TrEMBL record:
<dbReference type="InterPro" id="IPR002921">
    <property type="entry name" value="Fungal_lipase-type"/>
</dbReference>
<dbReference type="Pfam" id="PF01764">
    <property type="entry name" value="Lipase_3"/>
</dbReference>
<feature type="domain" description="Fungal lipase-type">
    <location>
        <begin position="123"/>
        <end position="203"/>
    </location>
</feature>
<dbReference type="GO" id="GO:0006629">
    <property type="term" value="P:lipid metabolic process"/>
</dbReference>
<protein>
    <submittedName>
        <fullName>Triacylglycerol lipase</fullName>
    </submittedName>
</protein>
<keyword id="KW-0378">Hydrolase</keyword>
<dbReference type="GO" id="GO:0016787">
    <property type="term" value="F:hydrolase activity"/>
</dbReference>
<dbReference type="InterPro" id="IPR029058">
    <property type="entry name" value="AB_hydrolase_fold"/>
</dbReference>
Length: 365
């Protein structure tokens, strides 16, 4: 039996061992989850976003339950998926530190559940959490964050576990009813898994919250002319190097890969006040600006390449394709002013009922 008393942003849970454990209010679905969603319309993009974000939160709480040894009736994670008629199909564990970094959920409605649109729901959702700042998982998560900076996430054992899980679900159940979702580091994991599958012709629906974009923080510049000038100059230099690399037969396959991925259109959710992901706004906006001013050909080449990668290739060094290079996306920007960085980067913002967002599809052709 669980007895909960809310005293502030923190509360106490009394469990079977009669011990009080300090927990965050944000771990409690009834306190911070989208309890307003009592019936899911699976064609409603806001409902899709809220469910996907909640399932990612479920992975965060799974690891926190493990760290705090909360089991059975003490566990706080199950409501984050049971509320939406999902069950936990499998947990994904990092072989380095044995932390839970992902989960596979299966849609399993009760016999009493009936919804005319339920057949359009996803049967499986593969979700990945981001960096945890508490407990034993922190050091391993930070190592993986560094791998993202070095474009080496694909070389880690955690990603190998993730992609094997994705391939298993696709091979066993098909790809038409599978979602990929993740937040921050987990969004990078889901994006890399989605790009890997897309290269084989399998295009999975993806919901990526605050995905990392590795770039100078140009989006934070207030002066639009200065911002556009920097982006324009970068595009011209990048396109010039790409043409030169092609002429000199320098090894760089990012352009071919970019075109091959153009049919995959993941959903990206970013906050302009979050420097981790805000550059996606300018990344896609700049393409349109270049088309408008008649420089679309330059940008079409530039957007397929990393300036840093081209420079390294000219120096004779191998450089992997940057994770953030993505041809197409449904980009959703949260226009609701956050109180601080923690809120701008957090997963909780994405299921709020009063969320003010702006969405646009960007298709690479």
């Amino acid at each position: 039996m669980i007895v909960t008393v809310v005293v502030s942003p923190l509360c106490f849970v009394q469990g079977q061992e009669e011990q009080n454990v300090l927990i965050s209010e944000k771990e409690l679905f009834d306190q911070c989850g989208p309890v307003h969603l009592t019936a899911i319309d699976w064609e409603n993009v806001a409902h899709q976003r809220s469910v996907a974000a909640s399932l990612v939160q479920g992975v965060y709480i799974l690891e926190r339950d493990k760290q705090e040894k909360r089991k059975g009736s003490q566990a706080l994670a199950p409501p984050w998926w049971r509320h939406f008629q999902f069950e936990l199909y499998r947990v994904l564990v990092d072989d380095v530190d044995s932390c839970i970094f992902g989960a596979i959920y299966k849609f399993a409605p009760s016999k009493s559940y009936f919804d005319g649109s339920k057949d359009k729901s996803q049967r499986f959702v593969i979700a990945f959490r981001g960096t945890l700042t508490k407990g034993d998982a922190f050091s391993r998560d930070i190592q993986l964050d560094v791998h993202i900076l070095r474009n080496g996430l694909h070389q880690t054992s955690r990603f190998e576990t993730a992609i094997q899980a994705v391939r298993h679900v696709v091979a066993t159940f098909g790809s038409s009813s599978i979602w990929l979702t993740g937040h921050s580091l987990g969004a990078a994991m889901a994006m890399l898994a989605g790009k890997t599958m897309a290269k084989t012709g399998v295009f999975l629906d993806a919901f990526l919250f605050n995905p990392p974009f590795l770039s100078a923080p140009i989006e934070r510049i207030k002066d639009k002319k200065v911002k556009h000038g920097i982006r324009f100059a970068t595009s011209v230099i990048t396109a010039g190097l790409a043409f030169a690399a092609k002429h000199k037969n320098v090894n760089n396959q990012s352009g071919d890969t970019f075109v091959a991925l153009s049919a995959w259109t993941p959903c990206l959710y970013v906050n302009p006040s979050d420097p981790v992901c805000a550059e996606y706004i300018g990344y896609f906006e700049h393409r349109e600006n270049m088309d408008t001013m008649g420089a679309g050909v330059i940008e079409k080449v530039a957007t397929q390449h990393s300036l840093g990668g081209l420079v390294l290739n000219f120096m004779g060094k191998e450089c992997d394709e940057p994770l953030h290079l993505i041809p197409s996306a449904n980009l959703t920007v949260n226009l609701t002013p956050p109180s601080d960085f923690k809120e701008a980067h957090g997963i909780h913002q994405w299921w709020k009922p009063d969320l003010l967002v702006e969405s646009k599809k960007h298709q690479f052709t």
